[in-house]
């Protein structure tokens, strides 16, 4: 749990529980003097449930801790308002699509999107199998052996979602790192799709992650799924990445490539990295600030996955971005406004290139205005089409 620049682990034990009615958790190690949380569920109609959270806590340091009680209460109120808002929207989303429960296998399930997606699909009644690398210590997941997952898992899945791949923003782009980025996406996807193609009963649908980097840097020029592809490193990787799924398509499997933009969530990725400097009042425009940012909230990413699962007419590339891209200057001012912090400290392009090398131009100083044409044309409705309401929701600043 973060409090400004300070972080402390928070471990809770689940104690009493009654299926379908309630469960509790109590702090074992963490920032509070004491914490007990009762999660209660109550039927209030055929299609409605009342969700109630009863929290009893004390702050640390005895009487001195009471000084921070107002701030703590505000943070807790924001947290639970966010949780209830997300739960309501997620369940409504499942209800609106009415997709019959499926067996879904997910690679990259421990990543930023995979963690949220497995929980989201589970909340809709889908049976999710998380596919992990052999080094994973998660006893509830299925591990690969020599890059292969068990045929009995893939062959009994209705949908396979492939999210695995090296983090492109995890470090400077040395030649070795570029090779790992390429291999983790291209070779990994090819190995998976060749295995799917050999199955006696392959899944009906394969959903593969991709990225809007496939278009290269067009900045103000609008692009959609029909636009030509770029020629830089990321564009070439994305083209090979998508082409590696061809064995599955040849086997009659419906294949979708989700071309993801900048996914906004405080749990990780770009937004999480921005929060500390912005909260300290030292956030600012990157470079010229004119580079376009095609973003999307994590909530809309999850809903878009459910949408493409539910729309059998969709296949091939699908841009997963909000309909209103913004430039870096607009995004910077929006984030500062939501956090009520100044944004007066620009970061020159030369400093970014010094810190990150060629990765700075690819991820921070370049941009493209991407339109989600296929999502919109197929009837998808965004929860957060505009950046400021999205940030207010994600950061619990809706008031």
Which percent bin holds the helix content?
A: 25-40%
Radius of gyration: 22 Å
The order of strands across the largest sheet is 9-8-7-10-11-13-17
Poorly predicted runs are none
CATH architecture annotation name of the largest domain: 3-Layer(aba) Sandwich
Beta content: 15-25%
- Determine the mean pLDDT: 91
Number of helices, counting only DSSP H or I runs of 4 residues or more? 13
End-to-end Cα distance, whole Å, is 23 Å
* CATH topology tier name of the largest domain: Rossmann fold
Tally of separate domains: 2
The main sheet comes to: 7 strands, parallel
CATH homologous superfamily of the largest domain? NAD(P)-binding Rossmann-like Domain
Global outline: globular
Which CATH class of the largest domain? Answer: Alpha Beta
Total beta strands = 19
What is the structural class? alpha/beta
Descriptive notes:
- The protein starts with a strand and ends in a 5-residue tail after the last helix.
- It contains 13 helices and 19 strands.
- By secondary structure, it is of the alpha/beta class.
- The strands form six sheets. It has a seven-stranded parallel sheet with strand order 9-8-7-10-11-13-17, sandwiched between helices. It has a four-stranded antiparallel sheet with strand order 3-4-5-6, with no helix packed on it. It has a two-stranded antiparallel ribbon with strand order 1-2.
- It has two domains: 2-92, no CATH class; 102-394, Rossmann fold (3-Layer(aba) Sandwich).
Short description:
By secondary structure, the protein is an alpha/beta fold. It has 13 helices and 19 strands.
